[in-house]
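User: I'm writing a short report section on ligand binding and want a predicted complex to refer to. Could you take this sequence and pyridoxal-5'-phosphate and write out the structure as tokens? A short remark afterwards would be nice.
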Amino acid sequence: MPSASKATTNADLVARSLASVWHPCTQMKHHERFPLVPVTHGEGVWLVDAEGNRYLDAVSSWWVNLFGHANPRINAALKDQLDRIEHAMLAGFTHQPAIELSERLGNLTGLGHAFYGSDGASAVEIALKMSFHFWRNAGLTSKQKFVSLEGSYHGETIGALAVTDVAIFRDAYGPLLNNNLRVPFPGDNVDAALSALETLLAARHQEIAALIVEPLVQGASGMRMYPPRYLTQARELCRRHQVHLIADEIMTGFGRTGTMFAGEQAGVRPDFICLSKGITGGYLPLSCVLTTDDIYRQFYDDDVTRGFLHSHSYTGSALACRAALATLDIFRDDDVITRNRDRAERCSRRAEAIRLHPRVSGFRHLGMIWAFEVSPAKPGFAREFFAASLKRGVLLRPIGNTVYFMPPYVISDDEFDLLVTQTLAVIDEVTAA
Ligand SMILES: Cc1ncc(COP(=O)(O)O)c(C=O)c1O
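Assistant: Sure. The structure tokens for the complex follow:
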């Protein structure tokens, strides 16, 4: 059995990990050249390895961490919860953390009937199934397709991948995926994108259950941002054509775009909202789908098969819900959304040298996200950039040639300055002839 008392040098942990762990989103052979980083602890924005090397977590550990690693307030809540109940099945049972979290998420989103999953992808599966099942219960059985935007990313399970449009994740599994529909990304031409959406919905609404979007920013396809106007009008088009709108706020939710949820900037209330990632402050896997009373009522019946019979074993884990409650407490007690506005402004000023760098283009910013392209980008740019930044004590994980900062909200001005300085050095290093 693994034991904490075994030797914990970096080399030892790396060798054991490579022999026993199949790491996510990785061609394992690349680790012949690119070393794994064995993390032994964390503190604020820092991850620390077995030999005391520190890495500034500028991507919030895949966009989940909001208030730093080993946050004392979330730790305290979890320790308290551990002595009460860690987890009890949520079918036929309930508990205070799930109830309170559902009430608070309901108040924050204007939706309700919180249905829990574990990871982001499971929330997407839940929303897709609920939408389809709603129409089926309503007698509209031909509504079986989903529409997503070009460049969309909604997760990697089979259903979520079928509404994802990122070739590197999708192509190998193409034969397994339902044939859904794509509409143009509202990048340069919002009106053209809206008109394409309108044309599709008008022609095929009888076949379409829902439109699923990442509100305001597509994360995994390279932090592609678009104006709120698209979302506002897409909401209206969906309403007009009897198509659900699913807001996948898994990445954008919990303050990342400057408001608690990105949809707020477009004045949009979706039919379903998918939440995960930051929901527990980056502590434990938890996801949640909230929906409207009308949709909920369509499932409420004497007939069991009209009910939503989906489940995951860890649905509504008490520990995870408690971490989420502690995270929401921090938002409330520290007035995080307001304070992040000043913080983001200070960070943007500090990032000015990056924006002006001759190798940088497309510099953009929204809330606590900054992104830009670096050129020239040789093949393997993202891995080279990742490795070069690690050597400088910074964790950055570009998408293609898009480099982005998505730090925990507790990053200090000095830490952000360090991030900028080291990033500039890495840009020079990896673009040198
Ligand atoms: C917008 C969006 N949806 C869904 C997911 C999938 O979440 P998970 O990786 O937790 O399954 C992600 C993950 O990056 C995401 O960014």
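A remark for your report: Residues 413-431 form the longest helix (19 residues). The mean pLDDT is 97.
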